[in-house]
Every structure is written in structure tokens, then in C-alpha cells.
Amino acid sequence: MGNLSRLLKESWTLVEEQQDKVAGYFYARMFLSNPELRNLFPVTMDVQRARLLGALVTSMQLVDDPDRSDEYLHALGRDHRKFHVEPEHYEVVGGALLEALRAFAGERWSIEYDQAWREAYQAISARMIAGAATDTNPPYWNAEVLTHERRGPDVAVLTCRPLQYPLPYRAGQYVSVESPRHRPRLWRTYSIANAPDADNTLEFHVRAVGAGWVSSALVRKVRPGELLRVAAPMGSMTLDASSTRDIVCVAGGTGLAPIKALVQELTRYNRTRWVHVFFGARDRDGLYDLDELNQLAARYPWLSVVPACSDDDGFTGEQGLVSDVVGRYGPWAEHDFFVSGSAPMVRSTLRTLAELQVPSIRIRYDAFSDG
Ligand SMILES: NC(=O)C1=CN([C@@H]2O[C@H](COP(=O)(O)OP(=O)(O)OC[C@H]3O[C@@H](n4cnc5c(N)ncnc54)[C@H](O)[C@@H]3O)[C@@H](O)[C@H]2O)C=CC1
């Protein structure tokens, strides 16, 4: 670990347990010094509160890994154009962040820590600003909802189409989505569940969970004909067309979305790579897209699908967490992996794969937040 990243981690431990208060103070400072910034944020701040601070801290942790962070931060800068963020706003956010950290770290805060956060923030914001500046696309796309299908009490599969410009993306990537009618200024990330196609349709798989405000609106309120806003694509869980390795996809719940897009892309050119999809859900109803996956498997001989239920004794297929089920098959040492689901599901799957000696360089996944 480099010195900068050590200083950041060390100083973060001074405030980590008071994150909520740090976030509250951070926003208060920001809005006090620049009241016009308040309009960039949702009316109700509950959900937003931990977001910006959380994203800043995650970005800080990437400072040691310029290759990974460059691509990520350029994309994040492009994505932030949807908030109408201007370069000068970055300075205000940086100032408020430092004030909040200083206020809560107390006497143990040092000049060294102060400089480390300044330096890291400067590097991050420069890359985000550069990413935004080179983007010639609109800050977001207005997209009309075409179809909306409930697949169980909490899950919906919906499709939409950008109105004016096509949205360029790669299969496996994700975008932020806003419903201006039902949840103005609240954005939540979803993977696009289909590969890019000529009619520019985008498919999303959404589960309404707990405090997930945007997700509950997308499942329960949004109807065909309404407009959504969709921001710039992000994420690196994409296919390497030059690889000749066979593929294993591990999906938990609606984490199936990007896997479905990857499989669809493979149907266009794959002849030689075996593709195994493990699809885990709590119960049979949670296997909301299994019929379509089975139809694809019937049509493409290189595709196999293994469904698994973790909380359904009556299910006759595989039982258990999908992260364990994948470990019962194999051997997997020569495969490319794609993993998608909740953060705990991704962590458990990575542990299983590490035990099976799968080199981490062959595993692709994107960190995803719920909301
Ligand atoms: N909607 C989308 O476009 C995308 C969603 N995601 C994420 O996927 C998740 C899907 O959530 P739900 O559908 O509610 O799935 P869920 O929480 O019901 O889990 C489905 C299955 O995932 C596995 N799993 C869950 N927790 C696990 C753990 N701690 N260890 C090992 N395996 C575990 C189990 O096999 C379980 O049956 C969400 O966290 C969402 O953010 C990820 C990528 C895209």
C-alpha cells in the first residue's frame, strides 16, 4: 500500500464510526456556503445522505491503482453530468469534505492527513472533470417506457427507448436511471439487460427492496408511455472477444441483468466457447427469467443454465447459495468468470473461486449499491 493510501485509510478510521454525522455536517457546510447547490440534490435527502460521501471514500481507496481508477473516474465524471455538475462545484465539495473530516476526527487530525485528502481529492476531481469534458453525448437521455411486466410481487422487467439519440454502451455495462415523475432527482444504477441492438431498446430488471425508493417506483408506479432519464454507461464487466476461454456466469437475483446482456451478445458470434450460467434465487418465484434463459439454452448448444434456490425446500433443482452451487461444478481453473448480484453474494462467490484457485484476473464483476 502506498503512503498516500495508508494516510487516507488511517485517517478515515478516526471518523468511520460517525459516518452519518460526517455526512450530515458535510451537506450542511456545502449548502450553507453555496445554497444554489441544494437544487442539484433530491428534495428528501434521506437516501442521498450516505451516497456522495460513500462514493468519495470508495474513490479515495482507488488512488493506488491508477489503471483501474482512471477508467472508473472518467466514467463517473461523465455520469455526473446528469446532475448538472460544473467544474467549480468540485472545489466546494472538496472544501466541505475536509471541514467535515476535521470536525469529527478531533485532535488526532494532522496536517499530513489534511494534505493526503487534498492531494487525493485533487487527483480524483481532475479525472472526473476530464471525463466529463471529453464527453460529447448529452448529460442524460430521455427514454420512453415501452413495456412493463411484473414478474412476481417485487420484480419487474421493463424496456424503454431513448427518444432523440441512441445510447452507446457495451453489453454488461450499467447506467443511472431517474423517474422524474415519481422520484425526481433520485438516481439509482441498473444494468442494461440486453445487448445493444438496432432499435436502441434498453431492458432493465428491477426488484423493489426495502428502502429502495427508485426501485419501488420502477416496479410499482411506472407505466408504458412515461419518460425515464438514463445517464452515461459505466462498468467494466464486458466481454473480451479475443479470449478463447469457456465462460462461467454467476448471477444472484436481479443480478442476472448484465449476465443476460452478455449471453445475448454471445448469441451473435459465439460458436466455440462453452457458456455456463448459474442463476440463484431464494425461491422458484425468484427465478423470474428462467423461462427465457431455458429457451436460449435450447437454441444454442454451447449454453447451459443451472438454476438454484437458497430458501425453497420444494425446488427439485440445485439447493443452496449460488456461490456454493458453482463450487460443486467444475473444474473451473481455465474459465473466464462474470459475477453479478448483491455485494455479499459477489464477495462469497469470489471466496469460492479463490478456493478453487481461479486467478482473479479472469474474474469480472462490478461493485453495485442498492437503493
Ligand atoms: N437490477 C440490476 O440491474 C442489478 C442488480 N444487482 C444487484 O443484485 C442484487 C439482487 O438482489 P435480489 O434479487 O434481492 O437477490 P437476493 O438477495 O434474493 O439473492 C438471490 C440469490 O443470491 C445469492 N445470495 C444472496 N446473498 C448471498 C450471500 N450473502 N452469500 C452468497 N450468496 C448469496 C443466493 O443464491 C440467493 O438465493 C441486488 O443487490 C442488486 O443491487 C447487480 C447487478 C445488476
From TrEMBL:
Signal peptide: none annotated. Residues 1-133 form the Globin domain. Its EC number is 1.14.12.17. It catalyses: 2 nitric oxide + NADPH + 2 O2 = 2 nitrate + NADP(+) + H(+); 2 nitric oxide + NADH + 2 O2 = 2 nitrate + NAD(+) + H(+). It is an enzyme of class 1 (oxidoreductase). Its cofactor is heme b; FAD. GO terms for molecular function: 2 iron, 2 sulfur cluster binding; heme binding; nitric oxide dioxygenase NAD(P)H activity; oxygen binding; oxygen carrier activity. InterPro entries: Cbr1-like_FAD-bd_dom (IPR008333), FAD-bd_FR_type (IPR017927), Flavoprot_Pyr_Nucl_cyt_Rdtase (IPR001709), FNR_nucleotide-bd (IPR039261), Globin (IPR000971), Globin-like_sf (IPR009050), Globin/Proto (IPR012292), MRET (IPR050415). Keywords: 2Fe-2S, Heme, Iron, Iron-sulfur, Metal-binding, NAD, NADP, Oxygen transport, Transport. Transmembrane segments: none annotated. Residues 138-240 form the FAD-binding FR-type domain. Belongs to the globin family. In the C-terminal section; belongs to the flavoprotein pyridine nucleotide cytochrome reductase family. This is nitric oxide dioxygenase.
